[in-house]
Write a structure and sequence with these properties.
By secondary structure, the chain is an alpha+beta fold. It has three domains: 142 residues, 2-Layer Sandwich (Methyltransferase, Cobalt-precorrin-4 Transmethylase, Domain 2); 159 residues, Heat Shock Protein 90 (2-Layer Sandwich); 73 residues, Winged helix-like DNA-binding domain superfamily/Winged helix DNA-binding domain (Arc Repressor Mutant, subunit A, Orthogonal Bundle). Helix content is 37%, strand content 19%. The protein is built from 16 helices and 21 strands. The chain has a seven-stranded mixed sheet, covered by helices on one side. A four-stranded mixed sheet has the order 1-2-4-3. Strands 5-6-7 form a three-stranded antiparallel sheet. Helix 9 runs antiparallel to helix 10, helix 10 packs antiparallel against helix 12 and helix 15 packs across helix 16. It is globular. About 3% of the residues have low confidence.
Length: 472
C-alpha cells in the first residue's frame, strides 16, 4: 500500500477524506459524498474502512462488480448529474481489500438524485436554498475559467476527426468504457464540454472544448494570445538550437511535446522486474500532461517547455492557492482545469490528481541519479526536472530501444497495436484486445503467440489474475 494512502488513514476523516464500510456492495449514500466532494475541493473515499480507520475489507468476490458499478453509476445522470466518470483503484491494508475513489474538484455544480450536496469537516450536507447553490456556481465560475461558455461555437469549429483516436485510448483503459457507444455530440456532453449556465440560461460549448478539440482558427479566435513554445537550449542559450511553436489544440499539443522530448532526450535501458520500463516517457508524460492540464489559459503569460543541458523546465500561468516551493509529499492536490483533467484521465494521459509529482519522484532517481525535481507555484507555475549530465554507460544508450523497434515492426501492424494496448493496460483481456485492434479473438491469440515466439511478450500469472509483460 502506498505511503500517501496510509497517511490518509492515519490522518483520519476530514473535508477531503471519507471512510465507508462496504463488504459486498456499494454504500447507499456513496454518491452523496461523491457529489459533495466534486462541489467542494475533491478528496478520497476509502471503501472497506470503518469510521475509526480500521480496515474491515471488501469480499474478494465482490471487488470487480463494485468497481464496475462505480464506473457505470458515476456516468448515470440519475446518480450524478452532470455525470463525472470515476475509476476506483484496489489496495490492501492490513491484509484487507479496500477501494480508493479519488475525486477531483469539479468546475461544475453536481447533483445526486436531484439534490446538491456540499462538503465540510463534519461530512456531507444538502444545499437547498437557491442563493447557496448560486454561491457554489459563482465560486466555480470565477475559479475555473475553462467553464466559460462560447454560444456561437458549433461542431464545425471542433476537430471531430480526433475523436476516433480519443475513443481508442479510452478503450485501452476500459474496453467497457461507458462512453464507447456515444455519438460525438453525446460524448462531448458527457465529458462536460457543453454546458448551461443555471443563472443566465446561456448554453454552448466551453473554453475546455475549444482547448481540447478546437481547430487552430477557433482557438485563436477565442484566445488570440494562445501558444505553447517548446525550445532546446544547449548551445545557443540566448536563442535556441531547436524550436516547436504550437498553436493547435491540447490533444495534438500533447503528442507534439512528447515527440519533442523523444527527439532530444535519451531513453536509458531500465528493467523493473523482468519488464523494460520507458523511463523517459514515464517521467515526461506526467510533466507534459500536468503542464497542459493545469495552465490558466486566460492569462497571456507565455507557456514554455525548455530543454537545457542539465534540466527540463516548464513555465505556465497558474490559478494558484499556495505560493512558493511545493513539497510533493505534503501538497494538497488542486486541479486548475478539472474538465480538461477528466478528459486526459479518460485517455490515461493522467491518473488521479497529484499522481504526476509522485510518479516523477518514483522514476527520476533511475533516470537522473541524485536528481530532485522542484515545483514552485504562484502567478506562474514552474517545474524543474534535472537531467543526467556527462557520458552514459553503453547499456543505457538508445540502441536497445532502436533494436526493439525493428523487432516489433517485424511482427506486423496488428501486433504493434497489441503492444500499444498492453503498454497502456497490462491486464487487458483477449476480447478487449480484439475490440481495440478490430479483429477476432482468434486473430489476437495468433498474434500473441507470434509475439511470445519473438520473445517480445510473456504472460505472468493465471488467465484471470495475471498480467502481460513486454520484454526487451
Amino acid at each position: 500500500m502506498s505511503s500517501e494512502l496510509r497517511a490518509k488513514i492515519v490522518a483520519g476523516e476530514g473535508i477531503r477524506v471519507e471512510y465507508k464500510e462496504a463488504k459486498k456492495s456499494l454504500p447507499a449514500n456513496l454518491f452523496e459524498t461523491v457529489c459533495a466532494m466534486l462541489n467542494r475541493d475533491g478528496g478520497d473515499i476509502l471503501l472497506g474502512v470503518d469510521d475509526s480507520g480500521k480496515a474491515l475489507g471488501i469480499d474478494q468476490s465482490s471487488i470487480a462488480k463494485m468497481k464496475a458499478d462505480i464506473v457505470s453509476q458515476s456516468n448515470n445522470s440519475q446518480k450524478l448529474d452532470p455525470p463525472f466518470i470515476l475509476f476506483p483503484s484496489t489496495h490492501t491494508l492490513d491484509g484487507k481489500n479496500i477501494l480508493q475513489i479519488s475525486i477531483p474538484a469539479s468546475s461544475q455544480v453536481h447533483r445526486s438524485k436531484g439534490i446538491v450536496y456540499d462538503r465540510s469537516n463534519d461530512g456531507d450536507f444538502r444545499v437547498t436554498e437557491p442563493h447557496r447553490i448560486a454561491e457554489i456556481s459563482n465560486r466555480k465560475r470565477t475559479t475555473y475559467t475553462e467553464n466559460l461558455i462560447y454560444s456561437a461555437i458549433t461542431l464545425d469549429d471542433l476537430r471531430l476527426d480526433q475523436l476516433p483516436k480519443v475513443r481508442n485510448l479510452m478503450l485501452t483503459r476500459d474496453s467497457r468504457h461507458p462512453w464507447r457507444e456515444l455519438d460525438d455530440e453525446q460524448l462531448l456532453l458527457k465529458a462536460g464540454l457543453f454546458r448551461s449556465d443555471p443563472e443566465t440560461g446561456k448554453e454552448g460549448y466551453t473554453l475546455a472544448a475549444i482547448l481540447l478539440l478546437g481547430k487552430e482558427e477557433t482557438i485563436q479566435s477565442a484566445l488570440p494570445h494562445y501558444n505553447i513554445d517548446a525550445l532546446l537550449r544547449r548551445v545557443q542559450m540566448d536563442h535556441y538550437d531547436d524550436r516547436d511553436r504550437i498553436y493547435c489544440n491540447l490533444i495534438e499539443a500533447y503528442e507534439r511535446l512528447m515527440a519533442f522530448i523523444a527527439k532530444h532526450l535519451p531513453n536509458p535501458f531500465y528493467l523493473e522486474g523482468d519488464a523494460r520500463i520507458n523511463l523517459r516517457d514515464n517521467i515526461f508524460r506526467e510533466a507534459v500532461a500536468n503542464f497542459l492540464v493545469h495552465q490558466e489559459y486566460m492569462s497571456a503569460h507565455p507557456a514554455r517547455l525548455v530543454i537545457y543541458k542539465d534540466r527540463v523546465e516548464t513555465t505556465n500561468a497558474s490559478n494558484y492557492r499556495v505560493e512558493g516551493l511545493l513539497d510533493p509529499e505534503k501538497v494538497v492536490p488542486f486541479s486548475k482545469n478539472p474538465t480538461i483533467a477528466k478528459f486526459f484521465s479518460q485517455m490515461s494521459w493522467v491518473e488521479e490528481i497529484g499522481s504526476g509529482m509522485m510518479n516523477i519522484g518514483k522514476y527520476l532517481p533511475h533516470y537522473t541519479p541524485g536528481g530532485v525535481p522542484e515545483y514552485r507555484d504562484g502567478p506562474v507555475f514552474t517545474a524543474t526536472i534535472p537531467l543526467p549530465v556527462g557520458e552514459r554507460k553503453p547499456q543505457t544508450s538508445d540502441d536497445v530501444g532502436k533494436v526493439s523497434v525493428k523487432r516489433r515492426k517485424s511482427v506486423g501492424k496488428a501486433s504493434e497495436k497489441i503492444l500499444l494496448a498492453i503498454e497502456n493496460n497490462d491486464t487487458i483481456t483477449i476480447s478487449e484486445l480484439a475490440t481495440f485492434v478490430g479483429v477476432t479473438d482468434r486473430t489476437i491469440e495468433r498474434n500473441i503467440k507470434k509475439l511470445q515466439s519473438a520473445k517480445l511478450l510473456k504472460r505472468v500469472g493465471g488467465r484471470k489474475e495475471g498480467r502481460w509483460v513486454i520484454l526487451e
